[in-house]
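Researcher: Please predict.
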Amino acid sequence: MIKTVYLVSILFLTHFILIAQYKYEPTSKHPFGQANPNAPDQIKDYKSMIGLCNCKSSSRNQDGTWAEPIDMTWRFKYIMNGLAIQDETLKADGSHSGSIRQYSADSSKWYVHYYASKFPSQKLSTWEGNKKDDKIILYKEQKAPNGNNGFYKITFYDMTKNGYKWIGEWVNKDESIVYPTWKINCKK
């Protein structure tokens, strides 16, 4: 009898510790998780995007025209017990993608690691940047098709509780040349 009580006590305590340890993960009450209060304040930069949005995704054709928009669902949630953010895109054309977003207090930057179903890779592409005023701006070094040095710049803007917008652009080093290649408009 004492062994049974002891075993039940250990199981209860273990269960309690596990629940307390992961209390900011997605649950039925909080399906997209919660920001961990011990995370850097910047975890709230994506606050208005947490949840599901219905979006239209348009990319530029090789001839410079814009392709017809593709319906897309964009889902953001807190992961790693509320210390990071994961997003996933589910597109009507069957091409899906996602990112893991982590903020480093040491460098004072967001690091965004991107992956896509169409282009599996051994190393994930990484963008880095910050929220500036009312925009989140991230960069990754990338040459233009003509070989010029520059960046691929992604920007979240018009972020409200009702939705947000996103644009991907190639920019040269001083951003005097800006060439949009992809845009997404989302509504909750």
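Model: Helices lie at 2-21.
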